[in-house]
């Protein structure tokens, strides 16, 4: 079973790959690096983030935004 630490490492790797592919990343409407997004997940344990994938005309991911969701 995955630990939370492993999940965060996996998320960082995933977001770094998106960044290498020139996908814009952000959190709560503000551009952010993979590390900033992972840190926000660590700091806000009581809330969650919903992913919002933005696609281009060809259906490729051009942006990935994380929006805070209050329970």
Description:
The chain is of the alpha+beta class. The chain has one domain (4-69). Helices cover 38% and strands 32% of the residues. The protein contains two helices and four strands. The chain has a four-stranded mixed β-sheet, covered by helices on one side. The relative contact order is 0.21. The model has no long low-confidence stretch (mean pLDDT 91).
Mean pLDDT: 91
Shape: globular
Count up the domains: 1
Number of helices: 2
H/E element order: HEEHEE
Give the termini separation.
25 Å
Low-confidence stretches are none
Q: For the report, how would you describe the main beta sheet? A: 4 strands, mixed
- Count of beta strands: 4
Radius of gyration: 12 Å
How much of the sequence lies in strands comes to 25-35%
Which descriptors would you attach to this protein?
single chain, 71 residues, alpha+beta, 4-stranded mixed β-sheet, 2 helices, 38% helix
Describe the structure concisely for a colleague:
With 71 residues, the protein is α+β, with helices and mostly antiparallel strands. The chain has one domain (4-69). The chain has helices at residues 4-20, 34-43, and strands at residues 24-27, 30-31, 48-55, 61-69.
């Amino acid at each position: 079973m995955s630990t939370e630490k492993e999940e965060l490492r996996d998320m960082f790797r995933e977001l770094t790959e998106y960044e290498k592919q020139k996908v814009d990343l952000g959190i709560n409407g503000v551009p952010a690096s993979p590390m900033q997004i992972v840190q926000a997940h660590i700091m806000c344990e009581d809330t969650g983030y919903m992913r919002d994938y933005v696609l281009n005309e060809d259906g490729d991911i051009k942006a990935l935004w994380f929006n805070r969701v209050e329970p």
